[in-house]
Amino acid sequence: MADYQNILTPCRFAPKPHHGVELPRGNWAEKARPIFVWLLGKIGDASSDHPPGVAGTVSAVLFAFAFLIIGANFLASVDWNPIEFIRLLPWLALEPPRPNWAWVLAPMNEGGWWQITGFFLTMSLLVWWWHVYNRARALGLGTHMAWAFASALFLYLTLGFIRPLLLGNWGEAVPFGLFAHLDWTAAFSLRYGNLYYNPFHMLSIAFLYGSAVLFAMHGATILAVSHLGGDREVEQITDRGTAAERAALFWRWTMG
What we know:
Main location: membrane
Helix content: 55-70%
Keywords: Bacteriochlorophyll, Chlorophyll, Chromophore, Electron transport, Iron, Magnesium, Membrane, Metal-binding, Photosynthesis, Reaction center, Transmembrane, Transmembrane helix, Transport
InterPro entries: Photo_II_D1/D2_sf, Photo_RC_L/M, Photo_RC_L/M_CS, Photo_RC_M
Low-confidence stretches: none
CATH superfamily of one domain: Photosystem II protein D1-like
Structural class: mainly alpha
CATH topology of one domain: Photosynthetic Reaction Center, subunit M, domain 1
Oligomer: single chain
CATH architecture of one domain: Up-down Bundle
Number of helices: 10
Order of helices and strands: HHHHHHHHHH
GO molecular function, one term: electron transporter, transferring electrons within the cyclic electron transport pathway of photosynthesis activity
Radius of gyration: 25 Å
Protein name: Reaction center protein M chain
CATH class of one domain: Mainly Alpha
């Protein structure tokens, strides 16, 4: 029976532990035998994803700070009650400062925590963009992913920084929270006209979801034929009878 193998197949090895140099009987290290922990192996498994490197690690730490600050504020808003935290989680929010604080650093309980969270989250996203860009250049790949991510970052910065800057206060920014940011979006839509009738909004959503589905279809198809060599798509794309050509024919026939 053939094994399913491709360049993305992760390999996990679990050999017998090496105990090192023989120690005198009675030594404490003799009793401390090494063990294998599956979860720790997944965390450090280089075959499951690329190594994070310095930029990736810095980005993860900054994101963790932002995540913890949001979580702590959510907990504080329900008097540190874990049951209420879980029950009310969709309604909890970390709000930006009120308009009267303009652009100054507001007191912690009046929007200061939101400003600090926004700083950590923004720096995390910018450092991660730098990580994606650098990895692509180091591997000799195109920087398409970095610039696609940059377009999403532009939307994030527009709503959370550029627009509030032009309007003169942090109160115009998006709050952190599930229903809170949806309520903000609904209010924004009512303020500037219904977004659902905006043709540019329609086109952006259509291209966003359409491109996501097309990329998923392509990636899934190539993975499905990778055991036949279809992952070598660049080399096979112009040849007849190859796995990549059969994959292309499948969708060509499907689309009519």
